[in-house]
């Protein structure tokens, strides 16, 4: 190569690694030019300028108190594998541009699909695209014309139905916060039924025994799907094997960098053939929604190879144990109302008798909790996506916030 910017630069890579391993906080909110510079700074100076912003101002998802969202920390082996894929820039659209990367994606899918009773599929940037792909396949293979799901379904389900020109009907929830089975229409012969395994707000796993009642059943297991790797919790998704398709977000409980997800099919040959298109410039048909497609399977394969099923399950179980410990603490607190059930590591609670959760939420450290709404009520939401969380720190912070809230309420009443 004649342009050194395209060669591996050991000094520059060491600089980047050092910035990651020894982060410096940013002294300014943003110290970048407002317009595209005419003359560049050079690679080293650009890294020096960006590191305190990109790294220094980022939320630490692996911190001991990080318990707010469905966004996990990522293991260092995934960082290394992502560096490889960025350097090589393989495009799985064409076998000639990514011969090994295509095979590695097939291998990862072959490892994971049987856990859900599926026989294949492909990787996508996340479960929004996975859900769109599933509904597209349902329309083409099963002749589905309408999408039936619950009010707790992810917004991508309604969005996908809209894109595909399909009607989306959202049914009411049962007492547990999942789809009410008795609200299902009797005639589902033209419907794709979308069940959620781990609702976004409350983590509820809907009744998967309802699978196979419609022309096509899709399970959005973006969050709770990886529980299938755990012998202790796999049974919570029993019935998923009767679905026609399953979506899983690898950048949630498989601890992968964004953007990484899977769409899996029970009959992948029929499903993927129905959503494939050819082109004069393609050696093989293009499958699914994406055109150009990067080697996102490589970091996932590296992680699975390093940890094995047992290692992945151990980290998921550690997250579940943290949620159960927090649940026990909150359930025993007289000033707290807890949402039931706790199916998949999502804990919802609110100060008992309070009109708003905001005064308590504002006293909690950033990244420790978030807010959602279920059944018309605001709830403080905590999600066990971080295997490194320290529940003692989280519980102590909640206890102090509640005490301060009760103290303020007492002063207001005097």
Keywords:
globular, alpha/beta, 414 residues, four-stranded antiparallel sheet, disordered C terminus, 13 strands, seven-stranded mixed sheet, 10 helices
Word description of this protein:
With 414 residues, the protein is of the alpha/beta class. The chain has helices at residues 10-21, 43-54, 76-88, 99-112, 127-142, 155-164, 268-274, 297-331, 358-361, 391-413, and strands at 120-124, 146-150, 167-171, 191-196, 216-220, 245-249, 261-265, 276-277, 286-287, 336-338, 346-351, 370-374, 377-383. α5 crosses α7. Mean pLDDT is 94; it is low at 409-414.
- Mean pLDDT reading: 94
If helices are DSSP runs of H or I spanning 4 or more residues, what is the number of helices?
10
Shape call: globular
Helix content: 25-40%
Q: Strand portion, in percent?
A: 5-15%
Largest sheet: 7 strands, mixed
Secondary-structure element string: HHHHEHEHEEEEEHEEHEEHEEH
Sequence stretches where pLDDT stays below 50 over 5 or more residues: 409-414
The secondary structure category is alpha/beta
Q: List how many beta strands DSSP finds.
A: 13
Calculate the terminal CA-CA distance, rounded to whole Å.
77 Å
Task: Please list the strands of the largest sheet in the order they lie side by side.
Answer: 1-7-6-5-4-2-3
